[in-house]
Every structure is written in C-alpha cells, then in structure tokens.
Task: inverse folding
C-alpha cells in the first residue's frame, strides 16, 4: 500500500483562489517532500520539510507537517492557471531510503 | 550534464521483445532511482542505487526486470519479454545522496508502449 496518500484526488478552483492539498502517511519519516508534475512526465521538486519542522514557506507555497497525525498539507496561495498540474507528496520511512510517492492530487486552475 | 537525461523518450515494442531504458544522472549525484508511472497513477518505486552499495531492488515487479549502474553514473533498466502491462512511463531521478534530505531531480521519462 502507498506510504503517502493525497486528498483530494482532484481539485478545481478559480484563478486567484487558494488551493490546499493534504497528504497522509503511515510510518515515521525522515522528511516529506512535495513535487509537481505537468503533462505526465518529469516531476519538479517543490519543497522538503524535515520531520522536526512544522511549517515551511517557499514563495506562494506553504507546507505544514504534523507528525503526531502523520499528515502534511500543501497550500498554494493566489493560484494561477500555470499551477494546473498534479501534485505528489513523497516520504522516506525513518531509517530507510526508499522514497515512496502518493497517488497525487490533480489541480485544475480555471482562468 | 545540467539535468537528468533519459532515452529514448518514447519506445514502442512488440510483446515478448526485450527493451533497454537509459538514464544519465546529474554529474556528481551518487543516488539514482527508477520509478514507473501508469496512466493517471502515482509513482511506483522500482529500484535505487547509492554509490557502490548494493542496490535496493525490492520494488522490481518481476524477474523480467533488472537494472544496473555502471561506474556509479549511467543506469540501464532492462525489461525482458515485455508484456502489455509493462506499458507505462519509466522515470529516473538522481540526488546528491540517497538520504532524501536532498530533493530529487527527475528526467522527462521514457514512455513505453507494448503492443
């Protein structure tokens, strides 16, 4: 089964709105990463948050991590049509190096 | 190179044939990962290499799949006797080290279609 699972599976919003995606995982982790994928090809690394961090910002991105709930959220503020993509969370189980990806959230931002 | 390079970008093969997929990681990156992504799905871990250590092959779906990494750089993923269910995009990623305190850089993938 997947270590990381995102919800919702799909999200459709208007340009300018905020988009929030969630990720849940099962085991203790070293850190959690978020990636974006356009058109089903290569993934682009967005942000990495370590297990001892609770919140991290990068531009319009805000990531939170709650290790007690084994969950993370990715917030994209003031969304743009160019943010339309699939977003994946990825985790390594603590003590391991096998990075496991969730099934992703498909975000569609309408202009 | 500047990024992770994968070749070919697209491959159509007949069922039962063998295929080789190539990945050139970023120079100096010691960790290399292979993933498989079926249409509209998430990434399925296949294998990772870290330096000269034994690779973690735990994600390879069958013994028809194998991978090697020569000289700690270029990697080849080989699928023998391809089946239609092998059709997917095969993604390669490299990282400075296997610990994911470093983000991964992905290639654009090889889209494999088995007919």
Result:
């Amino acid at each position: 089964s997947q270590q990381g699972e995102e919800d919702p599976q799909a999200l459709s919003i208007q340009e300018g709105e905020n988009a929030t995606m969630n990720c849940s995982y099962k085991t203790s982790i070293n850190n959690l990463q978020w990636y974006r994928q356009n058109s089903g090809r290569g993934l682009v690394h967005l942000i990495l948050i370590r297990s001892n961090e609770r919140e991290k910002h990068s531009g319009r991105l805000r990531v939170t991590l709650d290790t007690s709930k084994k969950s993370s959220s990715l917030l994209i503020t003031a969304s743009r049509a160019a943010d339309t993509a699939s977003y994946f969370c990825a985790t390594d189980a603590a003590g391991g190096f096998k990075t496991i990806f969730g099934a992703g959230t498909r975000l569609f931002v309408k202009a | 190179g500047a990024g992770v390079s994968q070749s070919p970008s697209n491959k159509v093969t007949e069922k039962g044939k063998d295929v080789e997929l190539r990945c050139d990681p970023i120079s100096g990156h010691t960790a290399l990962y292979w993933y498989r992504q079926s249409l509209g799905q998430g990434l399925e871990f296949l294998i990772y290499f870290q330096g000269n250590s034994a690779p973690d092959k735990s994600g390879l779906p069958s013994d028809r799949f194998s991978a090697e990494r020569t000289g700690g750089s270029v990697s080849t993923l080989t699928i023998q006797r391809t089946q239609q269910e092998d059709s997917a995009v095969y993604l390669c990623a490299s990282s400075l080290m296997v610990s994911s305190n470093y983000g991964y850089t992905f290639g654009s993938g090889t889209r494999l279609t088995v007919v």
Observations:
- The CA atoms of residues 55 and 64 of chain A lie 4 Å apart.
- The first strand of chain A starts at residue 4 and ends at 7.
- DSSP finds no helices and eleven strands in chain A.
